[in-house]
Known about the structure:
The protein is an alpha+beta fold. The chain folds into two domains: about 20-325, 3-Layer(aba) Sandwich (Rossmann fold), CATH 3.40.50; about 430-620, Sandwich (Jelly Rolls). Helix content is about 15%, strand content about 25%. The protein has 13 helices and 31 strands. An eleven-stranded mixed beta sheet has the order 8-4-5-7-6-9-10-13-14-17-18, sandwiched between helices. Strands 19, 20, 21, 22, 24, 25, 26, 27, 29, 30 and 31 form an eleven-stranded mixed beta sheet that branches. Helix 6 (about 270-280) runs antiparallel to helix 8 (about 290-300).
Amino acid sequence: xxxxxxxxxxxxxxxxxxxxxxxxxxxxxxxxxxxxxxxxxxxxxxxxxxxxxxxxxxxxxxxxxxxxxxxxxxxxxxxxxxxxxxxxxxxxxxxxxxxxxxxxxxxxxxxxxxxxxxxxxxxxxxxxxxxxxxxxxxxxxxxxxxxxxxxxxxxxxxxxxxxxxxxxxxxxxxxxxxxxxxxxxxxxxxxxxxxxxxxxxxxxxxxxxxxxxxxxxxxxxxxxxxxxxxxxxxxxxxxxxxxxxxxxxxxxxxxxxxxxxxxxxxxxxxxxxxxxxxxxxxxxxxxxxxxxxxxxxxxxxxxxxxxxxxxxxxxxxxxxxxxxxxxxxxxxxxxxxxxxxxxxxxxxxxxxxxxxxxxxxxxxxxxxxxxxxxxxxxxxxxxxxxxxxxxxxxxxxxxxxxxxxxxxxxxxxxxxxxxxxxxxxxxxxxxxxxxxxxxxxxxxxxxxxxxxxxxxxxxxxxxxxxxxxxxxxxxxxxxxxxxxxxxxxxxxxxxxxxxxxxxxxxxxxxxxxxxxxxxxxxxxxxxxxxxxxxxxxxxxxxxxxxxxxxxxxxxxxxxxxxxxxxxxxxxxxxxxxxxxxxxxxxxxxxxxxxxxxxxxxxxxxxxxxxxxxxxxxxxxxxx
Length: 623
């Protein structure tokens, strides 16, 4: 998981007249009213001096002993807060970013090979360098690593940068996503609210008397996953989270419907590799070696099935305990933390009525950029950073702005212009099923909305590790023995999808008891054109897991069955004149394990369908 967080900018957004507000938290000391924060157009302004900020480091005691040394683990928290919290009795909310990447990561941890003679589930009943975000040590100058403090301390917030349990200068062993890591994060929020103990470098107890206890968490990638995790505890004091490119279910990060599937750009990575990376080489080969070996065993890289290990790292069932509001931020082209991570989380938050907002952009594994700008239906224009600023002000300072009255979803369109929508998926979305049709066993087939469908069966042979997916997607108007392709007629009008495409394919694996199964949704140009295809979304399935991701069963060669799986969610507009395409193949060189070539699959198109979430339904599709 790349560790670069979202970019941030400095500066104020002063619109209209200034309003001086002096909020007094319920538990503030009497007769010591704090100095005022300044609010303009619903946003706090930079009126406190960053150069004069108080900076300190504390070690927060957790209830854990992850390295089994007989002592409770302590986690590091580096703090920057306005000077007035020490000199004038000001109590402030906290913006908290926790991270396993601050210091001493193992950049050349060895990866397992994805080249296999046969898929490991057949037998069952390139190291990639990472880079750390910040050095994680206090500088002589009053300035924490990163720019959260640069932006928010002048606006009347304290900023806390934590180091996850078992990483950097914190005690213990990392556990990558389970309850121990959650409790190690929660301990800092508990300390900020007077429920846990912390100590300075000399061992003296330290209290957080300078804070209101209102905490907002944010961060990108793993740093954004930690807010999701701790929010499911319902911890008192956590008022809001802004998870950026964040995981909500680790199984779907390293697996897909029973298949071992890598995060994009990190072929071969698994939970144990990430654990070793965050632990650093010394811990990985020393005090935490046994704990990491246990992760290697329990993650089950053989069957790929969902088990207790993954259930312990699945936060979706905990959404009902979330008491914080949630501002979800994600890239529509993020193939590291794939879009299903935000969409599944978003759905669960909706189910339990959690106050929420969504910002989707056209980038990959990153934030949208601070200057990304949306114009709302009422004509007002906000940047992403202003939106984040107003969100924290509303939930942490209680600023009376209208951030919650605005459209819930912001989506960047393919032309890079941002649009706002009432919700996501678009409420006008309807599922539309398209049939697969073929008249020739070796020629490209068609996607059809109505009418007769050809009955011809079509076969493909897995290319294994030999052909990259870009070559399998190319040339939709010519046959290819290693893939099947089905295209729609040229579209009469723009067609927008919003949600989860789904495949149901009836097929047989003719000569093996295990296989990879891959589907790509592709935007193609007109027939016989040279316009480059665009991969819209992808999805994978282990045919052994056709009845559920927790139970894999060997295939019976040559026996046809129905296989159903969702592709990664997407919001995308196919332009008029283009064609919607579906490509079906076996091994995906960029994501799956790669067996030797030769697995044969036979598809029955007439008994197969592609279901698309079309805004406006079948009438908007036009065929």
